[in-house]
Amino acid sequence: MSAILQGKRLYLEDLEIGQRFTSAAHILELDEILDFAGRYDPQFFHLDEELAEQSLFGGLAASGWHTAATTMRLLVGSLPLAGGLIGAGGEIAWPKATRPGDRIHVESEVVTIAPSRSRPERGLVTFRSETINQDGETVQVFTPKIIVWRRDAATSDVAIPASER
Amino acid sequence: MSAILQGKRLYLEDLEIGQRFTSAAHILELDEILDFAGRYDPQFFHLDEELAEQSLFGGLAASGWHTAATTMRLLVGSLPLAGGLIGAGGEIAWPKATRPGDRIHVESEVVTIAPSRSRPERGLVTFRSETINQDGETVQVFTPKIIVWRRDAATSDVAIPASER
After folding, report:
1. Domain limits at B125?
2. How far is B141 from chain A (nearest CA, A)?
3. ipTM of the complex
4. Per-chain mean pLDDT for chain B
5. Which residues of A touch B43 (CB under 8 A)?
6. Fewest CB atoms less than 10 Å from the CB: which of A75, B5, B145, B164?
7. What is the CATH number of the domain that holds A68?
8. Residues B110-147: pLDDT tens digits?
């Protein structure tokens, strides 16, 4: 964990299974929920408070993709991997809706570490990232597979920009 | 498919395995990519064209969450389910990056249909939604599990608003 304390980026060699990372918190305000939904998920339960009461959500809820995008923002600030966070994908679930005014943060844990056989300069690390609201309820679980570089990669042809090492 | 042609919403009874839905297309402009990344995924390969050339992407790429959010927008316009699209989650993968100027559309197929035992008014339908660029390359695969109502639900206590039936 000293690498984080020193503000340095982490490489594959710095990660171990069970290692945890906690993000800052973000409050999802109503305006932001309406703006995101209007652009990307224009459905009545994300846009209209009165109609939303007649939906499965029983009231206005943020788009799951808004929760996902906000989670990404929080991950960028809390998972200081060298070269940035590049995900190949993963499983995503929204066990509970996010509501206007919810204060969410993300807790991530290293689940698996798989050095690449064909690409010695990198590995694939699976994280389990839970997005949690102010009541301790999990609103999203995402288990991304993320490309993580070995320390050698910083000076190889892979060329991680100096500012991202 | 007559329900779509007539502009009506679809219920569980209207779906069958293998049924396909094709969305309109959307061009992801550079400005939009930079705006989304600045809000939700502020990493150098999404924001800085010069630095991005030194990344795994070899040039500026849209955030995967931007591709996902845009896919949702296209799904809202192409999967006319009664009561809207409410997803419990699913597997997401980004096999290829989305680039400025890419023209993407979404092709969705019904994969499984599971009527609920405990909730007779609904079922859980798995779709496979592929987001495809102008060259026919798949940039995202998402397999959401979506709640779909039976026709009865429209007039039951579940209360789908009249405008969403």
Report:
1. 2-164
2. 9
3. 0.93
4. 92
5. 76, 84-85
6. B5
7. 3.10.129.10
8. 999 998 888 888 999 999 999 999 999 999 999 999 99
